[in-house]
Amino acid sequence: MELKQTYAEEIALELNGLVELDEIVNLIEQPKFDTQGDLAFPCFILAKALKKSPVEIAKELAQAISHPYFEKVVAEGPYVNCFYDKLDVSLMVMKEILHKQENYGSSELGQTKTVTLDFSSPNIAKPFSMGHLRSTVIGNSLANISEKCGYKTVRINHLGDWGTQFGKLITAYKLWGNEQQVKEAPISELLKLYVKFHDEAEKNAELANEARLWFKKLEDGNEEAQHLWKWFRDESLQEFAKIYQLLDVEFDSYDGEAFYNDKMDEVVELLVEKHLLIQSEGADVVDLSDYSLPPLLIRKSDGATLYGTRDLAAALFRKRSYQFDQSFYVVGQEQTLHFKQLFLVLEKMGYEWPKDMVHVPFGFILKDGKKMSTRKGGVILLEQVIKEAIALAENNIAEKNPALPDKEEVAKMVGVGAIIFHDLKNDRQSNIEFSLSDMLKFEGATGPYVQYTHARARSILSKSAIDLTLLNPAGLNDPYSWPIIKRLLAFPEVVIKSFDYAEPSQIAKYLISLAQEFNTYYAHVKILSEDIGLEGRVALVQSVAIVLAEGLKLLGIKAPERM
Ligand code: ARG
């Protein structure tokens, strides 16, 4: 399959060890225009050793290289350009896809290696925000992509279930809370209590002190505090579970901030031992002024720990427990400073593995150009938003295909798929405008468009009962199939690139272009005519269906057979 590799090997053979194979692979480019061929090898680096001009070398190499997959090899200035043999290459790609099925594009890149992915990580007693939605969708897709690249993955939900806010919440609950109301609508009730606390605390300074005391009690294991905390946590988790179920996302670990409660003494001891802990304004901090960064706060004057302390403990724990080779934190760009500080402190502690830790930031979700918040103006719960998308998808289906069986199931796949695709189709750092009606469109760069294209391919296949064991390339010499073949050929590389850049958008964009090529093909070619080309065309449709479904799966989106 690796045509680039094949080309590099042919060149290496001619160059007789003058340049390493890997270097040749790296040098090979994709020509700007299709008319210049499929791969180009620049000869500049050879000039000195061969004492000839790059143009001359290109001419000689072009003449010497021949291979069944290459229709022709020509010199263009200092470049050696090769043109694929369309039929042979088409046959080869389709055979590989039909043979490997959903494993097409899988690689051994991460063999025996482990990656941990910290994503979603919502905060207990607070609504699941748009930022958490982005983290969930991006993190889940990155985990899928990592697995496709052969890595063992650990999906970690670092719940925000500890911190001074629980002192505030307990104080507020004890003053104004009502058990029944919290049970009925946990997140919004707890949020109300939290907001009320802040309002009242402005008038009454004593409240802040009380909250601090309650958090201290919680950290010291006070029974009442622990009991309330556990209850708030359980209620919140049940609410979050509904969202994860809708999105079909699972975790290997829910070890959140509280889990590190008994693991922070060690961190503090290590910092003391390494002379990194200093006093500043009554608190214990690690100084980072040598990096021109503010210090990382470790312990408040009353001994209470902080977000960063828990992240330090979590990093140590994860390295020991999972032996990660890479550790991703999929968290909004507003925490960039925090992760810089975290990684630097670990480095200062003398570990060499912080170099394997990566913060994967992302932009905001906007509504009419403004940052969208699930908090302001009463609580718009995310679950509601997802359900609305599903309901809209159901309307669309009722209009377009009223006879469809399992309408509800398909509407869920389409509604949820639309939200996920809309999130993943742009570079993750860009902000995205939230519009349910836009993301549910069947045309344009949307999830439903890709899903619909896949269903279209499946429906063609359901009408042909042809056996695809011995492939006949006849039927692939129309001008519309070659662009598809080239896209199919690129899939494995796109998967690796999406891993390297931690960019699921690479796959989303790829799927749009494959779907577009396929729809052009569909509009121009009579796929099911009974002639000698039938087998080749059906094999092409089948290959497209396999790759579309697999690409969607990597994004965390289902591909319905019909819609
Ligand atoms: N709970 C945090 C928040 O909502 C995100 C946690 C991210 N993960 C971490 N290890 N700090 O902002």
**Global outline:** flat
Distance between the termini: 33 Å
Number of strands: 13
Radius of gyration: 28 Å
Strand order of the largest sheet: 5-4-9-10
Structural class: alpha/beta
Strand percentage, roughly? 5-15%
Stretches where pLDDT is under 50 for at least 5 consecutive residues are 375-379
Q: Strand count, sense and closure of the main sheet?
A: 4 strands, parallel
What binds here, in terms of ligands, is: arginine
Mean pLDDT: 93
Helical content band? 40-55%
User: How many distinct helices?
Assistant: 21
Description of the structure:
This protein has 563 residues and is α/β, with parallel strands linked by helices. It is built from 21 helices and 13 strands. The protein has a four-stranded parallel β-sheet. Strands 1-3-2 form a three-stranded antiparallel β-sheet. It has a three-stranded antiparallel β-sheet with strand order 6-7-8. Helix 6 links the parallel strand 4 and strand 5. Helix 18 packs across helix 20. It is flat and about 85 Å long. The chain starts with a helix and ends in an 8-residue tail after the last helix. About 1% of the residues have low confidence. Arginine binds next to helix 13.
